[in-house]
Amino acid sequence: MNGHTPHRIPRRVVGKYVLIHLLGLIPLTLILLLIRYFFHFSTTLLIVILAAWCVKDAILFPFVWKSYDTEAGSRYDSLVGQRAIVLESLKPEGWVKIHGQRWRARLEAEVEPGYTGAEVVVKDRDGLTLIVTPAITDLVSDHLPERQPQRPLR
């Protein structure tokens, strides 16, 4: 196991996608019927075009379904309190990685810049930008003296 769990697509998202694309098929069908009437195309060709259109929608669905999930905001709000790793220095904006995803992030006001590899904590969200602050462990470790290697006890 790689620790990555696949997303379960909510039924309401599938229903919304199907409904929107079925409604889009109506004008396409009317246009194809007009083309068939005026240019005498075969019915088989029109059916093949409609089938190809439906196959295209089915192939694209796994890539676009998240944009049909209007309740996704609540899922993104669950990122608050989570830790992320800085991918691109936050001066004050940059990129972080959280749960395997790359996110735009901005440091809270009046905080030292977050450097690549540093750990930050998500405090809030502004649209699709995460508001972060340095993780406590990073703040503490920056101010601790270097540990000297200890000699074994005799």
Structure description:
This protein has 154 residues and is of the alpha+beta class. It folds into 2 domains: 11-70, no CATH class; 76-142, OB fold (Dihydrolipoamide Acetyltransferase, E2P). 42% of the residues lie in helices and 21% in strands. It has helices at residues 11-39, 43-64, 72-77, 136-143, and strands at residues 83-88, 93-98, 101-107, 119-126, 129-134. It has a 5-stranded mixed β-barrel with strand order 1-2-3-5-4. The longest helix is centred in the N-terminal third of the chain and has 29 residues, at 11-39. The chain is elongated and about 70 Å long. The two termini are 44 Å apart. 10% of the residues are buried. Mean pLDDT is 80; it is low at 1-5.
